[in-house]
Design brief:
The complex is a heterodimer. By secondary structure, chain A is an alpha/beta fold. In chain A, 36% of the residues lie in helices and 31% in strands. Chain A is built from 11 helices and 14 strands. In chain A, strand 7 (153-157), helix 6 (165-178) and strand 8 (183-188) form a beta-alpha-beta unit. Chain A is elongated. In chain B, helix 8 (152-179) crosses helix 9 (183-204) and helix 8 packs parallel to helix 12 (234-258). The chains are: A alpha/beta, B mainly alpha.
Amino acid sequence: MIRVENLTKRFGRHVAVDNLTFTVEPGEVLGFLGPNGAGKTTTMRMVTGYSPPTAGRITIDGLDLLRNPIAIKRRIGYLPENPPLYPELTVRRYLEFVADIKDVPREKRAGQIAQAITRANLDEVSGKRIGTLSKGFRQRVGLAQAIVHEPPVLILDEPTSSLDPKQRVEVRDLIVALRGRHTVLLSTHILPEVSQIADRVVIINRGKVMAVDTPANLSKRVQGGELVVVDVAGATPGDLRALLLQTRGVTEVSATQSNGIVTARVEADAESDVRAEIAAAVAARGWRLHGLRTEALSLEEVFLKLTQEEK
Amino acid sequence: MWARHIRAVMMRELRSYFASPIAYVAMTMFALISGFFFTNMTVYYVRQATQADQQIASVGQSPLQLDVPTTILSEFFKNEAFILLLVIPLLTMGLVTDERRKGTLELLLTSPLRPIELTLGKFLGAMALFGIMLLPTLPFYAFLAQGGAWEPRVVFTGYLGLLLVAAASISLGLFISSLCENVLVSAFATYGVLIALNFIDTSASAARSIWVDFIQYLSFFHHHVEFSRGVIALRDLAYFGSFVVLGLFLTQRSIESVRYKRG
């Protein structure tokens, strides 16, 4: 559905997107994962036809973006990172305006607006001015705007990033409900989120593709995305590391010392919970256990792991 | 699709005008100052006329040659063109600047909407608001008409002239707005250029030789003054027409170029 080939964007000397290639299959939800500044927004702006690429080719539905910009724009629904709203308009008037400029046929306009309002859960606020709505509602108005012309392709740039946890779950559920009706390209910098929504994930960093895989495989590759951190007094880093490596399920340990406390970061198989065994082993040696906790791998660590794997 | 897109943009623009205090402030200002000038001039010329009558009665002749309705109208339209210059930048300052600030330009430019449709829609939206602003001045002529001769021809050309000056000013303000990321910068830059264009002909008399004609030709006032006298001249129509076309063309190019900027 979406083909991106050797896409490059330069701003002066800075290379924001570097020779990016990926495809999104029809009906698929593709997650675009990367830290801030990785080139996600720039890529999405190029795919929507907003920002012209320096080099490379984008085709959507078999149409070349440079040759058929208007036809392609009719097929795309786009929610930028900040939803593009007119606070002085009511939700309904706003959607009428969007339907007009997106070429929704006149006779279908009322029906499609009603549907977008229902699908985005906006029924209770459809007559209110957008400026009076909460952030969560505004994000949903943004979503309604993206689907009002029933586009085959949806491009959502960090749709949940500025929301509180409750609103985030609501918007995420809405996006999951869109699955199947649209081909979706969605960006985020939240690792667990992308595994809940996306069929496939493209990880990009500094404008380059680092990995393309299903969320499940990626999780395996980064071992559940979790590590166990152990703080112990009375041991040397070397002793602790040797002991931990004997524990079943542990694959890698790094240990450091500061103020008499040795801290070890332990990676283990995704399947086994090694915390109980670690606690028992430390106690058996007569060392004092000061802390034992799990930590999610940060996105940076995921990138590091993936890039190390590649080498 | 052309007409539908342009209409959608224009109506949205009008709705946004009336949702903000700007439209009301501009309309009130325009109506009040217009009324003030009209009253002042009427009173002044009526006094002059009375004086002329007295002179004729006592001496049998008067040095004052007065055609009251025409004189009032002509002065009035000249003044209106000046008030318009104060009001137009308020209407145009946010036209594109606001869309950039709010991020809605991203919506517009990722829609199947051509930059020229967007430009025309915004231009017509501002023109429509200006048209509405002129409505409160219509009763003035009813007032003059009561007194007998009210020169419909001068009224017609006067309004035509005003609309042309407004169209040129709006196309200029729209273009400047498309260059600015800040509304105040947009407003003040528009004020600057408009004031220069209006009064450039006063400095023309200080210049010499061929430049006099050239500088005068650039001036809004120079072209507008004929309309307020009841004269429609082709060269004035051509001046305002090409000014508007140039402004709209530059705006459309400038909106296109926003896409090439970073961030």
